[in-house]
Specification:
CATH architecture of the largest domain: Alpha-Beta Horseshoe
Structural class: alpha/beta
Helix content: 10-25%
Number of helices: 2
Low-confidence stretches: 214-218
CATH topology of the largest domain: Leucine-rich repeat, LRR (right-handed beta-alpha superhelix)
Largest sheet: 8 strands, parallel
CATH class of the largest domain: Alpha Beta
Order of helices and strands: EEEEEEEEHH
CATH superfamily of the largest domain: Ribonuclease Inhibitor
Distance between the termini: 63 Å
Strand order of the largest sheet: 1-2-3-4-5-6-7-8
Length: about 220
């Protein structure tokens, strides 16, 4: 494990020579002034935990996509606009990217993230949530997308209740257009039975839409 802590403003770059630490499994570089991470970070094949919150990162290096064993990543409180380099990483268990400038969750392939337990991207500019979010029903326990720009949520969100894994759903402070959906999401934040009821409501919305489409075809 390597943890770097310096006076604020002292460190703005991480040298490419970090790749020489090929046995490194945990890298903690939070609370610095890093403006970017080196592409060579992809040579850390044993890296499982990357904590890089509270820096000045505007992009994640493409090399990060080679860290196939990465399980935990925290890049909260930066200036990121994309999580695209995470796309090939299928072993992720926890993703925290709160307080950035994300406009979507593009780069997260929900169908491949069978181990994902915790997803938190609050305080961003996310305006759309893909229907594929329902594919996380087998593992996801916490979803926090509060304080974004969502005007609607896919009814597939209700599928997260199918296997009773989800324990926390936070979607407050989004401009949800449908007052019924907004009310149920707010109630669902209480957890337990209220969350179950919220997810059932969302799943029923999916069924209603399905019936509407069939009727239209006739």
């Amino acid at each position: 494990m390597l943890k770097l802590e310096f006076p604020v403003g002292a460190v703005t770059t991480l040298p490419a020579s970090i790749a020489a630490l090929d046995g490194l499994s945990t890298l903690i570089i939070a609370g610095n002034m890093l403006q970017f991470l080196p592409e060579a970070i992809g040579d850390l094949k044993n890296l499982k935990v990357l904590e890089a919150s509270n820096n000045n990162l505007t992009v994640l290096p493409d090399g990060l996509s080679r860290c196939e064993n990465l399980e935990v990543i925290d890049v909260s409180h930066n200036k990121l606009t994309s999580l695209a380099p995470l796309k090939p990483l299928t072993q992720l268990v926890s993703i925290h990217a709160d307080d950035n400038q994300l406009t979507s969750l593009e780069g997260l392939t929900f169908g491949s993230l069978e181990r994902l337990v915790d997803l938190s991207c609050s305080n961003n500019q996310i305006a759309e949530l893909a229907a594929e979010i329902g594919l996380l029903a087998g593992s996801l326990m916490t979803l926090n997308l509060s304080s974004n720009k969502l005007t609607e949520v896919p009814s597939e969100l209700g599928l997260l209740g199918k296997k009773k894994k989800l324990k926390k759903l936070l979607l407050s402070d989004n401009p949800i257009a449908d007052p019924r959906v907004k009310k149920n999401l707010k109630k669902g934040e209480k957890g337990d039975r209220d969350l179950k009821d919220c997810l059932k409501f969302l799943e029923k919305q999916k069924k209603k839409k399905g019936k509407g489409k069939k009727k239209g075809k006739r």
